Task: inverse folding
């Protein structure tokens, strides 16, 4: 029935900052607390740094200083500085900026003048200061509202721009910056801008060889099959090699922006690679054999890029310039000539590449029979898959909630039952394990098809042929915080690292934090995730509050569980150290037991004693040591 009160008074106009604060997801993607690499607080940082990068690209300023302490973020570049009369406009008026003038900025990332304004609107405090020709202008904002307009004064500071902001805690709840995510972002900036120096919290980041250095840092030198192929042309740079891992690994960039979800340029490179390899070796190899185990990076610069969202994670542009060739043609022509020339000039590398392709071909044919049978079983099981309680929206869907799609992997029926009853059926799915999964370290991918549970998990995620059709953005391992739960976490992480390392490297895998304690009195209940939080809760509530120790997820009621997997969900991302070889990591923790590992476990063993009588401590320590060593074996 129509609203009889619908009138002129029903129409409301929002100013720029109100709209951004009301619909932040339109401008910075998902909000989050910083536990995922694509959470909003990192987008805020990136939006400011992008402007400094554009200054470097235009030849102004070779150094950027970034400092993050607690919840304060400061960025200082040494470019030309915002024109002093436009400092306030540039950070508070939509569609105001220098990038509309193609003479001032060419092939820039941000062209719509929104990014810095979004940071301003979503910050509890935002300060911008420009230094230009011995003069400086400063302005201070709160939630996007100008609160201090300082007059221009003289300065001896070098030209450039300084921005300091505090993300708004009412929007980004319980947020914290994870240094590894910030460092990964900074490494990408210096790889894409050879000669640029970025100082982050006193640490220097610099690259001389661009994407070659990126692959050197992100690939395992022990397992790559041939030296990194590095190809450079006007507005395009490519680095590639093949390793021993399963899957395909791509790092793609447009105008310095890390397009984590790929786009037209990444698709064009994958197509051009297959075409060029087939023509060079004069054989119609299967595309999956050519691209299997590839590790590559591609960067292109285009005029007026079209991205599929404000966060610019996927390129939608079809042309490199309004009147120029298509992205597909541009990349295909470059790869066809540059890669073909390289392979002719480096026959030993060409032989090594051919051997890797033939190895992939043999492996594919070896598992073809079992793969077909397993897929048929999985197809039948998917109709009545008791292990999977699916959700209605998936990551590949073109839906504003697709970033929130989550698959919880749980142990046993009790834990999965609690999550299933309390989850958001639109975006949260549950996959229930039966006992401990197989330790698949050192096994071939054949085991993924032979093991029914692994095969069903692979199909639930839809990652058999890569991440292009991944069904959930977040894969969350939800196990008990006891010895058995820790063991299951290790076994699942071994599965992902062994067969789908790109899933982990892309930041899709996390561990669910659940409260260890509930502290309450008649007036208030506090859930605690650590002993420190428990002590603080006891001090706050006083007078001997009731303390409950949760030993398993099944002990937490569905009503309570809803509090821990909603907007206040706490996740520990699985982050791979770039200096750590996956092969060495898995061999140490999941391979055959060694005296070194036994000694490491004994030295790092921790025993909880808060609720244990003193005469029981030694017995508990002995039992814990035995369990830990049993897992290590």
Result:
């Amino acid at each position: 029935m129509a609203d009889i009160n619908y009138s002129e008074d029903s129409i409301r106009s929002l100013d720029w900052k109100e709209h951004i604060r009301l619909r932040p997801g339109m401008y910075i993607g998902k909000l989050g607390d910083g536990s995922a690499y694509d959470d909003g607080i990192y987008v805020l940082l990136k939006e400011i740094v992008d402007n400094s990068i554009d200054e470097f690209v235009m030849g102004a300023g070779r150094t950027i200083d970034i400092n993050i302490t607690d919840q304060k973020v400061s960025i200082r570049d040494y470019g030309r500085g915002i024109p002093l009369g436009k400092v306030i406009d540039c950070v508070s008026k939509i569609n105001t900026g220098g990038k509309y003038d193609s003479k001032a900025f060419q092939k820039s990332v941000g062209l719509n003048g929104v990014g810095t304004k979004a940071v301003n609107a979503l910050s509890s405090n935002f300060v911008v200061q420009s230094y230009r020709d011995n003069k400086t202008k400063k302005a201070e904002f709160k939630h996007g509202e100008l609160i201090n307009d300082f007059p221009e004064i003289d300065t001896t500071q070098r030209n450039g721009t300084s921005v300091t902001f505090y993300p708004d805690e009412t929007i980004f709840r319980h947020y914290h910056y994870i240094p590894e995510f910030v460092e990964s972002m900074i490494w990408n900036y210096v790889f894409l801008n050879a000669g640029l120096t970025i100082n982050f919290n006193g640490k220097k980041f610099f690259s001389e060889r661009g994407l070659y250095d990126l692959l050197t840092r992100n690939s395992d030198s022990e397992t790559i099959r041939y030296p990194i192929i590095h190809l450079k042309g006007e507005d395009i740079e490519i680095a590639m090699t093949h390793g021993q891992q399963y899957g395909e690994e791509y790092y793609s960039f447009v105008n310095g922006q890390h397009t984590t979800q790929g786009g037209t340029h990444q698709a064009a490179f994958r197509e051009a690679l297959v075409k060029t390899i087939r023509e060079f070796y004069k054989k119609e190899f299967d595309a999956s054999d050519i691209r299997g185990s590839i590790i590559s990076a591609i960067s292109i610069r285009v005029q007026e890029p079209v991205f599929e969202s404000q966060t610019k994670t996927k390129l939608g542009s079809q042309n490199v310039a309004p009147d120029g060739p298509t992205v597909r043609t541009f990349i295909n022509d470059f790869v066809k000539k540059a890669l073909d020339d390289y392979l002719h000039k480096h026959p030993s590398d060409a032989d090594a590449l051919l051997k890797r392709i033939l190895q992939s071909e043999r492996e594919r044919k070896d598992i073809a029979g079992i793969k077909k049978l397993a897929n048929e079983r999985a197809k039948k099981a998917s109709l009545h898959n008791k292990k999977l309680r699916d959700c209605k929206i998936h990551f590949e869907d073109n839906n504003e909630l697709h970033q929130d799609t989550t698959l919880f992997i749980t142990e046993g029926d009790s834990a999965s039952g609690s999550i299933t009853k309390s989850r958001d059926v639109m975006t949260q799915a549950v996959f229930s394990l039966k006992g401990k999964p197989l330790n698949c370290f050192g096994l071939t991918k054949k085991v993924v098809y032979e093991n029914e549970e692994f095969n069903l998990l692979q199909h639930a995620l839809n990652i058999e042929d890569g991440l292009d059709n991944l069904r959930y953005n977040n894969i969350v391992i939800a196990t008990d915080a006891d010895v058995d739960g820790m063991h299951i976490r290790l076994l699942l992480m071994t599965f992902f690292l062994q067969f789908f390392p790109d899933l982990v490297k892309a930041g899709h895998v996390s561990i669910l934090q659940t409260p260890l304690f509930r502290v309450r009195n008649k007036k208030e209940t506090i859930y605690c995730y650590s002993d420190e939080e428990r002590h603080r809760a006891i001090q706050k509530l006083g007078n001997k509050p009731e303390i409950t120790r949760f030993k398993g997820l099944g002990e937490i009621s569905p009503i309570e569980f809803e509090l821990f997997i909603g907007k206040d969900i706490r996740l520990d991302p699985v982050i791979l150290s770039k200096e750590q070889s996956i092969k060495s990591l898995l061999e140490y923790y999941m391979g055959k037991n060694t005296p070194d590992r036994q000694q490491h476990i004994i030295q790092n063993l921790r025993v909880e004693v808060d609720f244990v009588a003193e005469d029981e401590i030694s017995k508990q320590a002995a039992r814990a040591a035995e369990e830990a060593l049993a897992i290590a074996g």
